[in-house]
Write a structure and sequence with these properties.
By secondary structure, the protein is of the alpha/beta class. The protein has 13 helices and 15 strands.
């Protein structure tokens, strides 16, 4: 506790003054101007420099729209086909945007001068992770739109997991990479990491955070850091846009780990408090509150879900050597993370039904568990609907109000 700091203790005027001083960086981001007002879990406070709303704010350019491209040649016998994945990505982007070709589709979101993050999911390697082929094609698309290689950052929250998934071995020269947390998973509340002072990715912004009255069981509630999840400096000070590459996977606490959880648990520190143990699982509320931060809401402009190989049980880390992984052979594209995750939930539940497993929402240690692999009393896919209630996207598949439009293309 030698690194305590009084984040959020400034009064509103003082806080905004400090935020303005921090805005010297051209891509500085931040949160709402609520000052140091107290927050509860159900009404968490976002803090940081003000950021202007843009046309890309979630749910983005195409609210309620999900384009799915299926191609049985994407993976066969454990081998992924780069050309098939490239064709699926290009077809999906054109269908989502209505552009004449893939380059024009990329230019719908990106332009010269943009500094772009690519958020990958290494957890689950080598069975269910953001495929190298898909990452490389995303980089190629950004370059085609005019983004310089040196302005592209491929990253995850944990640097060791990123390296373990062999991304540094395949990334093109000039593209930068790293992890927001430079050390192992035990580093939950640190904002700085010894030996990584000059690393362009590592570290968290002390002035941009989400505050919740939620402390990891067993930690000191007198330590003010325990109440805050700080955004990565890469997101607040460096990139102005992010392409997310979530995966088609279940999750034993959140129900599924898709677009929303990739944003929430991949962008901030101190996330273990959201699912500390089997009986204090609050992912259902934590995920929507984090994603609501104005920096995250404005910068995650495109979602490309890797469904080449999915995981219908045992996620997110593909337990038991990928026993529950399967070749789905699909990519799903959207700007709306809520719509994308609801479609994903239906896909996973359909696969679970085929495998004689209960739906995600009816799974957990407190429910009948014939696999013996549940870690939390009750899973919480309700985070998807709650995110919709906060205006982050479209949830309804049928009934009244805005509905999700899912277009399936087979090639």
């Amino acid at each position: 506790m030698s690194d305590r700091y009084p984040c959020g203790t400034l009064k509103r005027r003082g806080f905004l003054g400090a935020a303005a001083a921090a805005a010297a960086s051209p891509w500085i981001g931040g949160g709402s101007s609520r000052g140091d007002e107290p927050a509860t879990l159900a009404g968490a406070g976002t803090h940081g420099p003000k950021i202007e709303k843009s046309k890309f704010d979630l749910p983005g350019l195409f609210p309620g729209r999900v384009v799915e491209v299926q191609n049985k040649g994407m993976v066969q016998g454990g081998r992924k086909d780069h050309a098939a994945i490239k064709a699926g990505l290009e077809k999906g982007l054109v269908a989502l945007t209505g552009a004449d070709d893939a380059v024009e589709a990329w230019r719908t979101f990106f332009e010269p001068g943009d500094v772009v993050g690519i958020k990958v999911v290494p957890n689950g390697y080598p069975h269910a992770y953001s495929s190298h082929e898909l990452v490389l094609e995303t980089i190629a698309g950004l370059k085609a739109a005019g983004v310089k290689a040196g302005d592209i950052f491929v990253y995850d929250r944990f640097r060791p997991e990123f390296i373990n998934a062999k991304y540094p071995e395949v990334l093109p020269d000039g593209v930068r990479w790293g992890g927001l947390t430079a050390k192992g998973a035990s580093s939950q509340i640190e904002t700085e990491f010894e030996g990584f002072k000059d690393d362009p990715v590592a570290g968290y912004d002390r002035d941009a955070f989400v505050r919740m009255d939620l402390v990891h069981l067993g930690e000191d509630p007198k330590d003010d850091r325990q109440f805050r999840s700080h955004l990565g400096r890469l997101l607040t000070r460096t990139v102005n846009k992010v392409v997310a590459i979530p995966c088609l996977k279940d999750h034993r606490s959140a129900g599924i780990t898709g677009a929303l959880k990739n944003i929430s648990h991949g962008s901030v520190n101190n996330v273990a408090r959201s699912h500390a143990n089997h009986f204090t699982n609050v992912c259902g509320l934590f995920i929507p509150q984090i994603v609501s931060h104005p920096v995250l809401r404005s910068k995650f402009v495109l979602q490309i879900m890797d469904g080449v190989r999915g995981l219908y049980h045992g996620g997110p880390g593909a337990r038991h050597d990928g026993r529950w992984a399967w070749d789905y052979n699909g990519l799903l594209l959207a700007t709306d993370p809520v719509a994308l995750d609801h479609v994903q939930l239906n896909i996973i539940d359909a696969k679970r039904k085929l495998e004689d497993l209960p739906p995600v929402a009816a799974s957990g240690k407190a429910r009948p568990d014939r696999t013996g692999d549940e870690d939390f009393d009750v899973r919480q896919p309700q985070h998807i609907a709650l995110a919709s209630a906060l205006g982050l996207g479209t949830y309804a598949m049928e009934g009244k109000g805005p509905l999700i439009r899912r277009d399936v293309i087979t090639i």
